[in-house]
Design goal:
This protein is mainly beta. About 15% of the residues lie in helices and about 40% in strands.
């Protein structure tokens, strides 16, 4: 009998985040993530877990995500361009995350998004702001969660073998 996703089931899945307009894969997780269906502290949004309810191994679902609702609207005041000589060499790489502090000392991450011979641009918006995306999830396994997993909110001993992941 096929296990169906329902409350207190441990579910393992992989997912991709896909830009609806360009169909570009923005992020993907090949290493299975595990969660307990019905756990209020799930790593997945309730929109996603509702869509997964009643599904089983092998099912692939797509859930549209409103990134403006999730991350807030894009804020152009969080985009800064500066002369490249003002930026330490360690930060001169597209995709590099730079943590800066505001006047109150609160940290904020900025990502290097553009660079040329004279300037470097950083963006403090979440990279998904302003995009319409779809989470495409594939269910890999479904089983009864143990009491310990229910208490933990996930799979016991669910730490990836980073050596194995990096060497593949």
């Amino acid at each position: 009998m096929t296990e169906m996703i329902q409350k207190d089931k441990l579910v393992e899945l992989t997912y991709k985040t896909i830009d609806k307009k360009t169909e570009e894969v923005l992020t993907f997780i090949d290493y299975p993530i595990a969660y307990i269906q019905g756990d209020e502290n799930s790593v997945l949004s309730s929109d996603v877990t509702i869509e997964l309810e009643g599904r089983s191994v092998g099912d692939v679902i797509e859930v549209p995500i409103d990134c403006d609702q999730l991350y807030g609207p894009r804020d152009e005041s969080l985009v800064f361009t500066d002369a490249i000589e003002n930026v330490p060499e360690d930060y001169r790489e597209i995709g590099m995350t730079i943590t800066m502090e505001n006047e109150k000392g609160d940290p904020k991450n900025f990502i290097v998004t553009r660079m040329d011979d004279k300037t470097l641009t950083v963006d403090g918006n979440n990279p998904l702001c302003g995009r319409e995306v779809v989470f495409r999830l594939e269910v890999l396994s479904v089983r009864d969660a143990t009491e310990e997993e229910i208490a933990l909110g996930g799979k016991v001993g669910d730490d990836p073998d980073l050596e194995e992941i990096l060497n593949n």
